[in-house]
Each structure stands twice: as C-alpha cells, then as structure tokens.
Design a protein that fits this description.
428 residues, mainly alpha, 18 helices, 81% helix
Length: 428
C-alpha cells in the first residue's frame, strides 16, 4: 500500500477550498463567525441581567454604536485598497479583540457606548477589507469559493449560537464572561490565521480615477440601496416570523425553534450547490430576480398560517421557511455576483464598504418597518412584503446590464482565466 494522504482527507480538504489560501480564509471566517454567534445571542442579556443596565440604555448604546460604525466602511475599504486588504483586516480584528475584551469591565452606559462604538468602527473596516480579500483569494472559481465560504460562515454562526445557549441556560456572570472572552479570542485567532495568506499588494487605479469612485458610481449606489432593501428578508426569519407564529397562529410553539433550525440547515446544505453556479454579474441579476419570486411565494404561505388549524399551520410554517431559505440562498449568491462583479478590481474594498453601509442601514430599519407594517396589517402586510421583494428582485437583470455597460474588464478574472486555460492544456 502506498503511503500518503487518504482519499477521504483529500475530499474533505477540497470541500473546504480549492487551494491553501482559500482554506485559510474559510477557516479564519469560520472562527470569526463562531465567536460572533457566541456573543450576539447573549450580549443584551449580559448587560441587562449581569451588569444591571436598563434595557433602554443598552438599546440606545448599541444603536449609537451601530450608527457611528456605518461611517467607517467606505474609508476603511479605501484604506484596504491602498494598503492591502490583509493588513487592514488584521489591524481591525486586533482592535475588535481589544474592544471585546474591554466589555467585561463595562459598568455604565457611557462606557458601553464608547467600547461598542470602537468595536463597530473596527467591524465596518474589517468587513470592507474582508470583501476585498475574498476577491483576491478566490480568483480561480470565485462563485464556488464564495458559496463554500458562506456555507462555513453560516455553520460557524450556528455552532456559536448553540454554544451561547448553554451560557444562557446557566445564566451566571461567569458563563456570559466566557462568551465575551471567547468572541475576543475568535478575533485574535482570525487575525493570526490571516498571517498564512499572501500579503496582497494594492492594485493600481486607472489614470484620473476619482478617489471616492464608489459614491459616484450610480449603478452600484442603486444596487446598494436594493441590496439593503432585499436584506429585510433576514429579520423575517429571526424576528418577524417568530412573533407571528406566537401571536397570530395556532401552530405549536416548537415551530418557532424549527424555523431557525430549518433555515440554518437549508443554507448550510444547499448554499454551495446553488451558489457555485452563479458566477457572473448576469447570473447575479437573474438570481436576484429568482430570489424575489421565491419570497413572493413564501410570504403568502406565512400569512396563511393565521387562517388554518394547528397542524396545517405547522406544515405551512415548514413549507414557508423552506421556500424562504431557498430565496435566501439565491439572494445571497446573486448579491455576491453583483457586489463583487460590478466593482472594479482596484477599489473592491471601497465598494464593499459602501455595500456594507447599505446593508447595515437596512438591518437597522428592518425591525421598525417589519413590525409596524407587516404585523400591523396582518395578512395584507405579508402579501405586501412578498410583492415588495418580488419588485426589488425584478430590477436585478436591468441593473446588471446598466452596471456592466461601461465596466472595465476584470484584470483578476482575466488572469484566472489564463491560469485555468493553461491547466486545461497541461491535462490535455
């Protein structure tokens, strides 16, 4: 028997990435999201139950921090474009590790506001640099890499959330502190893992290129708005549907937990298979439209749960979340293809910073919009929400044509195509 790596081990490594750099970024992102899942689930409980701050003060501090953090995405992304995405992301992660560790010392609203703001500023910079790094790492088969990356990111959040559940059940200061320290450690470990990536250098900008080109790119600004609007579908699962099931239907209470479990399972299991086929901006525009149509189906199904008996309502909830989860996969894959494909290579960080700003703004507005409009209108609100998603998605193909009309060809994409052609010829 010839000694060497086993076929099973090779298959596992390939599933996690096509090359070393892809596997490193996937692992780093996975570690980071496990930490996020640990902390985000129990953060509010820690500050209200352990630190004993009023819920209104905690909400105000996190809101102020989130709004100020939005300002850092575009300049942070521009810095990543000019100084290299790996370096900037590592520095931002280091700041987040320090800020997260400092949270265990917080005992007042003012301190929480300052520390949370520092964390959100660094998070915005890190997110923009991460987007630029994704483009530089995943050049051979970018759609497949992005799909694998999101699969492991989703898995990381799920595992972190499960871990947080044990701390919530224990409900002790020590348990919550472990979550905070665990999240801080995840930032530090993620930064250390990035040392294993090449130190990607900045790409030269075209002559006479505007410094803040993302803000003057009307197709991309339009896509940013639409991407933020389509992002309302995420709080539908985490916020709106659980309230609807509990207050407006006869479905068993276990369906509230089933919603999150089914959504996570579908996204983890099917993301790579679907997302790997959505490669070009044109594919992305069509995927955006498909996502809107899937949400147009899932929202009326959710509305019907209020008008059916117990077990019929439970079946409708399961059917609705299955369809909605498929829509989420198509939406995220289309968003990747358009978000990266419509941005020029030399300014990916800046463009991803703008995209992150739009998405975060949408998430900040989502709770108020969804609870007042959809819950306020009931069945009509769900139908209106489905029509809204369908209308936003329908713009996808036209937006792609507008954005690519004068877009310069991708230098990274051309280089990757040449490498693939050389590899094909070598194997012929």
């Amino acid at each position: 028997m010839i000694k060497g790596r086993s076929p099973g081990r090779d298959r596992i490594a390939h599933m996690a990435g096509s090359n070393r750099s892809e596997r490193v970024l996937i692992l780093a992102s996975f570690v980071n999201r496990v930490g996020n899942g640990l902390f985000n689930t129990a953060a509010a409980l820690y500050f209200t139950l352990v630190v004993d701050l009023p819920a209104a003060q905690v909400g105000a501090a996190l809101t102020v921090a989130g709004l100020i953090g939005l300002l850092a995405g575009i300049p942070g992304g521009h810095l990543a474009d000019r100084r290299g995405p790996r370096t900037v992301m590592m520095l931002a992660l280091a700041v987040q590790a320090v800020a997260m560790s400092a949270l265990v010392l917080v005992e007042s609203w003012a301190a929480l506001t300052v520390v949370a703001t520092l964390d959100q500023l660094a998070a915005a910079v890190s997110g923009a640099a991460w987007g630029a790094l994704v483009v530089r790492v995943g050049t051979d088969r970018p759609a497949l890499f992005r799909a694998r990356l999101r699969t492991y990111v989703n898995l990381g959040v799920v595992l972190g959330t499960v871990g947080a559940g044990f701390a919530v059940a224990a409900n002790t200061r020590t348990a919550y502190v472990v979550l905070i320290v665990g999240n801080a450690a995840s930032f530090a470990l993620c930064a250390l893992l990035l040392f294993l990536l090449p130190a990607y250098q900045a790409l030269s900008a075209p002559p006479q290129q505007r410094r803040w080109s993302a803000l003057s790119d009307r197709p991309f600004v339009t896509f940013t708005v639409l991407h933020g609007a389509m992002g309302l579908q995420y709080p539908v699962v985490s916020l709106l549907l659980p309230i609807w099931i509990s207050e407006h239907t006869d479905a068993p209470r276990w369906t509230v937990a089933a919603v999150s479990a089914i959504n996570a399972a579908v996204c983890v299991l099917l993301q790579t298979g679907i997302g790997a086929r959505i490669e070009t901006p044109r594919d992305g525009g069509k995927a955006f439209r498909t996502a809107g149509l899937l949400f147009l189906v899932s929202c009326p199904l959710m509305a019907l749960t209020a008008h059916t008996p117990v077990w019929a309502a439970a079946a409708l909830v399961v059917a609705a979340i299955l369809v909605h989860s498929l829509g989420e996969i198509w939406e995220s894959s289309g968003g990747f293809a358009l978000g990266f494909g419509l941005a020029p290579d030399h300014a990916q960080g800046q463009y991803q910073g703008l995209l992150g700003l739009g998405f975060s703004a949408g998430q900040a507005l989502a709770p108020a919009l969804l609870t007042t409009v959809v819950l306020g209108l009931g069945t009509s609100g769900w139908l209106l929400l489905g029509a809204f998603f369908a209308a936003v998605g329908a713009v996808g193909p036209a937006l792609e044509r507008w954005g690519t009309r004068n877009r310069p060809p991708s230098r990274l994409g051309a280089a990757a195509a040449e490498r693939r052609e050389e590899a094909d010829q070598a194997h012929a």
